[in-house]
Write a structure and sequence with these properties.
By secondary structure, the chain is an alpha/beta fold. Among the domains are: 118-253, Rossmann fold (3-Layer(aba) Sandwich), CATH 3.40.50; 525-651, 2-Layer Sandwich (GMP Synthetase, Chain A, domain 3), CATH 3.30.300. The strands form eight sheets. The chain has an eight-stranded mixed sheet, sandwiched between helices. The radius of gyration is 24 Å and the shape is globular. Bound molecules: 5'-O-[(S)-ethoxy(hydroxy)phosphoryl]adenosine. 5'-O-[(S)-ethoxy(hydroxy)phosphoryl]adenosine binds at residues 270, 315-317, 392-395, 417-422, 443, 504-506, 518, 520-521, 613.
């Protein structure tokens, strides 16, 4: 058990280490730790020179004058430069054989397939750019995209980027109310949507939600509707237009706007488990550069790869690693509209086999669901095309990491555990698969050019293996530029918690090898008898017990200890809840971490409340643990019935 003089105590110990497989390293873009360290050193010696050298990989209409102007907390990257993202993602691939390469291979949930080559995608983007113009959109206007995961969403994003409109994608699972708030926050002029989407075999209707939202959105002038499901929708004369009708009438050429580097590219509201959503603003050149480079480095993209990131485009992972990063690299991207367990829990494995997917990037919450559904599902399929696996979104507990490696990766594929945030725009801490030895549960080291560190609340450095706050000490090209319409909150939330550095809001520790271990959000930290514990570490210990599928740990006020530990636990398929099992789990945690971390209370449940992006809503669990009721905001909750069941259980 480690002790700590800082604020967050780290108790997870993991000894396993996996070297990059030599046959992978041989062909990788970055083939060894030596090459990686050289890049890091170059970036440390001369950060601006390093980014300038990297920026040569993009197509510029006009070269930049200054690499970085930094007036904390405001950064200007590549000032004086002019560039267009859709040009970089499309036009520049049309001058070679790549024009006939598949850019997007898409599967709808019911099973239909579509393939768009770079040339076809370019044509559709140009046409839709003309449609946007016809709808009155001009450079600098905001456009809301509330759509299913269909190629038209990527087309709409790239069309906005082509004419210099700023997109604000709102995840199709959000309610009319959430959509309305986001449209109003960004002051959108046009909204693009669809009649509906398919999810788990039924239609999620989108257009009626838009109709509801548009009753209270004074800035919206037009609504463009993709026909996806064919269900009946109401079209308001003069305001609503069919995508296919306007596309048919649109010209298929549209010159890309030559935009200043700092032109606003997109606003994305963070779904956050606490507080009002923040409209994170990303701009053009720095974001594209970082998306481009990190995709190439971390996923080691090769010309012939089929690359699949399962994230919905409604989240930042979909922006950077479904659309902009891969397309800028000229990759072939697989997209899938629906649920992982439709029609059966092997849909993903079936698709990997069908399309011979090489690179697969998903989230720990999905991996834990796969574990729960059982290994028989992946075993039914030939997954031998896979060569690299990735994860993002939450800390991945070592047992889930090992399962991923063995059951999906056949023990052969490196795993890249990628730490980053909506705010960072791209991956910040991650292994490079041909270079970095990996340890299950660690995102390993910051990428070249990223000055990460761990500090106390007062900005003091933290010694190895002691937990602290994860910070970034130097601006990076894809950093958020502000919170849309609220620069003061930008300053406060990110640059004031600890003087002079970017505050990520995550707890982490660094081990003696310089590896980072993310311990979760700092508001997910429990203080037991003066020891602060990352809830994720206790969860990892619980999940490492064979009976447990998933666990969420929260603190409840306790007179004696400050906080008591409450664990919400879902069990593996056939396991039954019992008092013996409770006792066994408490002993198991005591054994894994120490008596200090033993849950005071274990509650078995058949599901955990989650946000629509799959994050466990610990805030709700905290409320249930503390008072048995939920008073707070539940608008981002995916499944309300989970909450009802947890409450009912409380009353028993
Ligand atoms: C968490 C998603 C541990 C973290 C790209 C961060 C992670 C928040 C990891 C951002 C990881 C993301 N290991 N934790 N590999 N990746 N997180 O904005 O708490 O949806 O602050 O961006 O997810 O979530 P967001």
């Amino acid at each position: 058990m480690s002790t700590s003089t800082t604020n967050i105590e780290s108790v997870l110990h993991e000894e396993r280490i996996f070297a990059a497989p030599p046959e992978f390293s041989e062909k990788a873009h970055i083939r060894s730790m030596r090459e990686l360290e050289e890049l890091r050193e170059e970036a440390e010696r001369d950060p601006e020179g390093f980014w300038a050298r990297m920026a040569e990989e993009l197509h510029w209409f006009k070269r930049w004058d200054t690499v970085l102007k930094w007036e904390p907390p405001h950064a200007e990257w590549f000032g004086g430069g002019e560039i267009n993202i859709s040009y970089n993602c499309l036009d520049r691939h049309l001058t070679s054989w790549r024009r006939n390469k598949a850019a997007i291979i898409w599967e709808g949930e019911p099973g239909e397939q579509r393939t768009l080559t770079y040339q076809q995608l370019h044509r559709d983007v140009c046409r839709f750019a003309n449609v946007l113009k016809r709808a009155g959109v001009q450079k600098g206007d905001r456009v809301a995209l509330y759509m299913p995961l269909i190629p038209e969403l990527a087309i709409a994003m790239l069309a906005c980027a082509r004419i210099g409109a700023t997109h604000s994608v709102v995840f199709g699972g959000f309610s009319a109310d959430a959509l309305k708030d986001r449209i109003n926050d960004a002051g959108c002029k046009v909204v693009v949507t669809a009649d509906g989407a398919f999810r788990r075999g039924t239609e999620v209707r989108l257009k009626p939600a838009v109709d509801e939202a548009l009753k209270h959105t004074p800035t919206i002038e037009a609504c463009i509707v993709v026909r996806r499901t064919g269900s009946n929708v109401r079209m308001q004369l003069g305001r609503d237009h069919w995508w296919h009708e306007w596309m048919e009438a649109a010209a298929s050429d549209c010159a890309p706007e030559e935009l200043p580097s700092e032109h606003p590219l997109f606003i994305l509201h963070t779904s956050g488990t606490t507080g009002k959503p923040k409209g994170i603003l990303h701009t053009t050149a720095g974001y594209l550069l970082y998306a481009h480079l990190t995709t190439k480095w971390v996923f080691d993209l090769k010309e012939e790869d089929i690359y699949w990131c399962t994230a919905d485009i409604g989240w930042v992972t979909g922006h950077t690693y479904v659309v902009y990063g891969p397309l800028s690299n000229g990759a072939t991207v697989l997209m899938y509209e629906g649920a992982p367990n439709y029609p059966e829990p092997d849909r993903f494995w079936q698709m990997i086999e069908r399309h011979r997917v090489n690179i697969f990037y998903t989230a720990p919450t999905a991996i834990r669901a796969f574990i729960k559904w059982g290994e028989q599902w992946p075993r039914k399929h030939d997954l031998s095309s896979l060569r690299l696996l990735g994860t993002v979104g939450e800390p991945i507990n070592p047992e889930a990491w090992m399962w991923y490696r063995d059951a999906i990766g056949g023990g052969r594929c490196p795993i890249v555990d990628t730490w980053w945030q909506t705010e960072t725009g791209g991956i910040m801490i991650s292994p490079l698969p041909g270079a970095t030895p990996t340890k299950p549960g660690s995102a390993t080291k910051p990428l070249p050019g990223i000055a990460a560190d761990i500090m106390t609340k007062t900005g003091e450095p933290v010694a190895d293996n002691l937990g602290g706050y994860l910070v970034i000490k130097r601006p990076w090209p894809a950093m958020l530029r502000t919170i849309w319409g609220d620069d003061e909150r930008y300053r406060e939330a990110y640059w004031s918690e600890i003087e002079g550095v970017y505050f990520a809001g995550d707890g982490a520790r660094r081990d003696a090898d310089g590896y980072y271990w993310i311990m979760g959000r700092v508001d997910d930290v429990i203080n037991v008898s003066g020891h602060r514990l990352g809830t994720m570490e206790i969860e990892s210990a619980l999940v490492s017990h064979e009976a447990v599928a998933e666990a969420a740990v929260v603190g409840r006020p306790d007179e004696l200890k400050g906080q008591a530990i409450v664990a919400f636990v879902t069990l593996e398929g056939t396991r039954q809840a019992s008092d013996e099992l409770k006792g066994a789990l408490r002993q198991h945690v005591a054994k894994e971490i120490g008596a200090l971390a033993k849950p005071d209370d274990i509650r078995f449940t058949d599901a955990l409340p989650k946000t629509r992006s799959g994050k466990i809503m610990r805030r709700l669990l905290r409320e249930i643990a503390a008072s048995g009721a939920v008073a707070g905001d539940t608008t981002t909750l995916e499944d309300f019935s989970v909450l009802e069941r947890l409450r009912a259980q409380e009353e028993e």
